[in-house]
Amino acid sequence: PAPVPVLRTARLTLRPWGDGDVPGQGEGPDPASLRFMPPGVHPDAAGFPVWLALQHRRAAAGDVVIWCLADGTTDHALGSVALFRMGPREGRFDAEVGYWLHPPARGRGYLTEALPAVITHAFTAVADGGLGLTRLHAATDADNHASQSILERAGFQQWGADRQAYRRSDGSLSDGVYFELLATDERVDQRAHLRRGIP
């Protein structure tokens, strides 16, 4: 399995998920989670043990590294960041980025703070303790402008879009928007270059 290193930022600790990270009251999926994420990605308290066991199996397969994004002071779980679909270790170069926050943790800039640490670990050479990747990519619901803004702040650039590409947890279909970042790219906020004009 790929190791899950502990990463620290000014306010956060990114660490492995544990049995004690069960979502509390109001921390399970809300309408935004159901609208923008595939089924089962954001667990509630009842489904957390099954969700955690699945993450352990995925990690054991070696193609995913998933962090619990925790408060740096209290260690309370706030959400999740993952690198997945990395493929076999031999010849590995690419990964998809996925993330979510519990509803009470949104709007505080946590993912904007956490992603640079994850990106740095992804692009750091294996010999230096990183994953040695050269490309990261991400996909979002076309209506999920908040997620797109997070990626753009981290330096990701939009490279494509398609129609009716996703089935949301609520059963509706949505368009997709796709982003990428190379290890050789300058990591600058891309939002100023977008026609959408996201603030």
General description of the model:
With 199 residues, the chain is an alpha+beta fold. The chain contains 4 helices and 8 strands, in the order E-E-H-H-E-E-E-H-E-H-E-E. The chain has an 8-stranded mixed beta sheet, covered by helices on one side. Strand 1 and strand 2 form a beta hairpin. The longest helix has 14 residues, at 48-61. The termini are far apart. 30% of the residues are buried. Mean pLDDT is 91; it is low at 195-199.
Describe the secondary structure blueprint for this structure.
Blueprint: E1 7-8, E2 12-15, H1 31-36, H2 48-61, E3 65-71, E4 77-84, E5 94-101, H3 110-123, E6 135-141, H4 145-153, E7 157-167, E8 173-182
Parallel strand pairs: 5-6
Antiparallel strand pairs: 1-2, 2-3, 3-4, 4-5, 6-8, 7-8
